[in-house]
Specification:
The chain is built from 15 helices and 8 strands. The protein is of the alpha+beta class and 383 residues long. The protein folds into 3 domains: 73 residues, 3-Layer(aba) Sandwich (Glutaredoxin); 169 residues, Glutathione S-transferase Yfyf (Class Pi), Chain A, domain 2 (Up-down Bundle); 106 residues, no CATH class. The strands form 3 sheets. The chain has a 4-stranded mixed β-sheet, with helices on both faces. A two-stranded antiparallel ribbon has the order 5-6. It is globular and about 60 Å long. The two termini are 40 Å apart. Bound molecules: glutathione (GSH). Glutathione binds next to helix 1 and helix 3.
Length: 383
Amino acid sequence: MSTPRQQTAHVLYGVPHSLYTGIARCYLRTQGIGYTELPPGHPDYVDRIMPTIRRSIIPVLETPEGEIIQDSLDIIDHFEAQGVPYPAYPAGPLQRVLAVIIQYYGMQGMLRHAMHYRWTYREQQEGFLHSAFAARSGEAQAGKIMDRMNSYLPRLGITEDTIPAIERSYEELLRILDTHFTHHPYLFGGRPSIADYGMIGPLFAHLGRDPVPAGIMKVKAPKVYRWVERMTAPGLDVPEFPDYGSDFVPDDQVPDTLKPLLEHIAGEIFPELTDKLAFMDAAIEQRQPGDGDPVSEKPHQRYIGMVDTHYRGATVQAGVEPYLVYVLRRADRALAACSAAERQRVETFLGGAGLERALIGDRDYSVDRREHIEVWERRSPRP
Ligand SMILES: N[C@@H](CCC(=O)N[C@@H](CS)C(=O)NCC(=O)O)C(=O)O
């Protein structure tokens, strides 16, 4: 094993075409945190990081003090706890809960769009993808890894039956966001929130970069393309909004142009999310895991099973990832910190937007991360 790097800046292990690395990278750039990006093939990653986190996954952040953090969300939370120039969690409970739900949509729901546009159009963008994968894993391995990625499509619910709906969804999303970003630089106002960081994952690494979907974005939604540039720039990149300021919209209000996005999300994440939660409820009931038990047998296994469900009316099978609980529990925690009156206001809004079932709520389990591994939390379920 090699000894820890003598480093003065943070190291981000990742690659340009990785969805979750993009989330962490945008955050570091926005906050002006110096970092060096190294690929996961680097000896430091292979000899030191991988044995610590017990799987090969990116992004991983290594701090100058030698702390190792895997998970894009945890990397954000690490810096939020220290204080940053542009905090990403809105203080208002409604904005905060909605931001978590939008973040979930970006990090989980939009995997389908990202993977579809990358791999279904493989032939048209083979050279671009090959160059990226060869840079990460070498010429000899690139083709094999690309084939493996390609083979994930069915378990993500990307099939002949769902592809037309996925494309309609992407184009509708672009229309909605293009209107929104005509009026606001970021989703909740003057700086990126966790909602923006969730959405930038797929909208940068795949949809904003791979030739076929990036072309669609540039032609159909130039303001969204500008937001992608804005999110990947250092600090705030807002020449179109010189007087806007860097605050979230005041008084915990929801911008009118964001409401169609919430409708879009509600129309798409159900019944799939409800079905996945029901599957997880049953698995917990049957397996009765203890507090701290890993969510899957091996750390790299992200699914605990497959569920038959629907995506925009089409029948699909989808892998059930306990990680979704890890993301969405943040909404419950925001609500738990509210007064009864605030809670009522948020719940009424969620009910009106058809999003109340996005809360994990009163279940006797949660998902935590301990020693870099996702585990069931049974002790005293949060919130
Ligand atoms: N929840 C993780 C997901 C990270 C993730 O899925 N990373 C992908 C690349 S974008 C990866 O390393 N996959 C390899 C694997 O899981 O074996 C995060 O947010 O950091």
